[in-house]
Amino acid sequence: MADLTHYSGEAIERAGLRRRDEAWIARQLSSDGCRIVPVWRGRSLLTEDAAASLPARGARRLLETSPSEPIFLGIDEFGALFALDLSHLPEAEASNLTPDGEFLELYGVATRLVRREASLLSHAAWLIHWTRRHRFCGACGHATAAREAGHVRACTNADCGMLHFPRTDPAVIVVVEHEDRCLLAQQKGWPGRLHSCLAGFVEPGEAAEEAVVREVGEEAGLTVRDVRFFATQPWPYPCSLMLGFYATAGSGDLRLDDDELAEARWFGRDELRAPDLDIELPRADSIARRLIDRWIARG
Description:
The chain has helices spanning 22-29, 60-65, 91-95, 106-109, 115-132, 208-220, 269-273, 287-298, and strands at residues 35-40, 43-46, 54-55, 71-75, 80-85, 102-104, 144-147, 152-155, 163-164, 169-178, 181-187, 198-201, 224-235, 240-249, 261-268. By secondary structure, it is α+β, with helices and mostly antiparallel strands. It has eight helices and 15 strands. The chain has two domains: 16-132; 169-298, Nucleoside Triphosphate Pyrophosphohydrolase, CATH 3.90.79. The chain is globular, with a radius of gyration of 22 Å. The strands form three sheets. Strands 1, 2, 3, 4, 5 and 6 form a six-stranded mixed sheet that branches. Strands 10, 11, 12, 13, 14 and 15 form a six-stranded mixed sheet that branches. A three-stranded antiparallel sheet has the order 7-8-9, with no helix packed on it.
């Protein structure tokens, strides 16, 4: 577990086997240590660069008036944690829930959070995002209702009854190596001089390793071998699981996909260590940066 990345390593017990026990969930929700992790229009509540929560006993009105059900996240050393969607509140009312709290985009502040807090907030935001997008059944169009403490959405149409589960989209991300250099690229539309690893979603019927080979071939025109797994990272923007790899290119000749990439080139370790590097590397909370830093350190 040494390679756990930002947004993982959450210090709570998810207690998945308890989600079907409605009486137990109700007791947790009314317990003294229970807290609410609110999400407002996709934003997370923070206080001085720390994750904020609301004592459930003091949030009864919010729990009773919210059109959404609380979603059980798990239990930590203090008590139970539930996510609650407060998007129905006016901005002014949401802003006044805590004296020093503020609802902020997690993407903009996650690098300032310790891993545990980033993980908790992403867990809550992820489930709220999924819930808001599965209020109706994709098979018949009828409304869905929460089951298993919010971790399942069940179609209310008796002739359908389909169950919907939280979605995670797997994507591969890879440092490609060739002759002691690594390939970094800039996607079209990225800000400034940001360069990162090649990445792409795993397609249906495709292994992650196959996706690495395909994506590198499509985007950079390279044939790669020796695909090696590194680590994974939940990426809550909005609901991906990043699968990190290293791979070796048989040639350094690039043929870029002009629809995807604005620029790509090979970098040596000394170049990436240099203080006057002319590109910007990925943000510190990303598995892309972990992959690059580990590659530099290996040399």
